[in-house]
Design a protein that fits this description.
Elements lengths: L11 H8 L7 H25 L4 H26 L7 H14 L4 H14 L14 E2 H6 L2 H10 L2 H15 L10 H25 L1 H27 L14 H8 L3 E2 L2 H6 L6 H6 L8 H5 L3 H4 L4 E2 H4 L7 E3 L4 E3 L2 H8 L1
Helix pairs in contact: 2-3, 3-4, 3-10, 5-9, 8-10, 9-10
């Protein structure tokens, strides 16, 4: 990523005028997206079930495809959480709950938690809800030995992208946040009940062993891809972080959220969410309008893309250095000590 451009940020009224026409949901686009996601995902499940009689390696190969469709399902769920997918609140809530069940994510609770993320992204004084744990260099240096160990463990790529996917969606999402209240807490219990019924039904239909032999690798693939997408959207070298008194919503959106330029096939599976700077500028834009919005105005052309190959380097970035205003690796600490 390049440094933040020197030209002034647009005012709120300026960018709101630019994005306004893209904030209106399209029923035909939404319905077609549901068809080309739900139908092939169901077909993929059927093929995985039948492949168990042939070879489990074939099942695992199909699980890669199934996992990608779950990522696409999660994007629909994500849009429903923002109320941007349909004009109808009832239709939004129904589709949001169903896609939440298929992705093992409580609809109401995640909606609340994710909205907090949007309101605080890039704010150093309001970290903690819906974010990947991020410490500043100074905070890390002043941390206890146990906290340093826990932080290094949490930021380890193997933990983040191999162990965390199953833990996040099968266990962590079954419990409400201590900060959640009322209906948001109850939504976790409602989803747990729905999942108990759904999983029991699936086990009755195809057998518990077959169900888990299919569901676990699918969840693993989808979870790893989902966590990676969320990670790289806010964990790159020149990402925006600022203390609350200096924090700016527009700057946090345009410079604290990456423009992740993926190959077209991966862009399709991830529902254009790589245009994350547009999404954070206005979460009311449905995923199918993110790219058209980005291409609609010169303002967005100044945002430098993060390519897939460059994004792999982001795995080494661990700490926010307030002096250089960059996300840095642990090896940066050695340079500080040497200096």
């Amino acid at each position: 990523m390049s440094e933040i451009p020197a030209h002034p940020l647009p005012t709120i009224s300026e960018w709101k005028e630019i994005v306004a026409k893209f904030q209106v949901p399209s029923i035909p686009r939404a319905v077609w997206q549901m068809v080309n996601t739900f139908v092939p995902y169901a077909l993929c499940w059927y093929l995985m079930w039948r492949s168990l009689e042939v070879s489990y390696w074939l099942t695992l190969a199909l699980a890669l495809l199934g996992g990608l469709f779950v990522v696409r399902l999660f994007i629909i769920f994500h849009d429903c959480c923002h109320g941007s997918y349909f004009k109808s609140k009832l239709a939004t809530d129904i589709v949001g709950f169903i896609t939440g069940m298929l992705t093992f994510t409580p609809y109401g609770h995640w909606r609340w938690q994710h909205n907090v993320h949007h309101a605080t992204s890039g704010d150093l004084d309001r970290r903690g809800e819906g974010d990947i744990w991020t410490l500043t260099v100074q905070e890390y240096l002043e941390a206890s030995r146990w906290k340093k160990f826990a932080y290094r463990l949490a930021r380890n790529p193997f933990v983040l992208f191999v162990l965390a996917p199953l833990g996040m969606f099968l266990i962590y999402q079954r419990f409400p946040s201590s900060s959640a209240k009322g209906k948001d807490r109850k939504s976790v219990m409602a989803m747990n009940l729905a999942l108990a019924v759904w999983v029991s039904l699936m086990c009755w239909m195809i057998g518990w062993k077959a169900y888990f032999m299919i569901q676990l690798p699918v969840t693993m693939v989808a979870g790893a891809a989902g966590i990676w997408m969320f990670y790289v959207q806010h964990q790159y070298e020149d990402v925006y972080w600022e203390h609350h008194d200096e924090w700016n919503y527009t700057a946090a959106a345009l410079h604290g959220s990456s423009f992740y330029k993926l190959p077209k096939i991966l862009q399709w599976f991830t529902g254009n969410i790589g245009y994350h700077h547009i999404h954070h500028l206005s979460h009311k834009i449905p995923n199918y309008y993110l790219e058209p919005c980005h291409n609609s105005h010169p303002l967005f052309k100044s945002i430098q893309p993060l390519t897939f190959w460059k994004s792999l380097k982001c795995m080494n970035l661990r700490l926010w250095d307030e002096e250089s205003r960059q996300l840095v690796s642990f090896s940066h600490l050695k340079k500080l000590r040497a200096a």
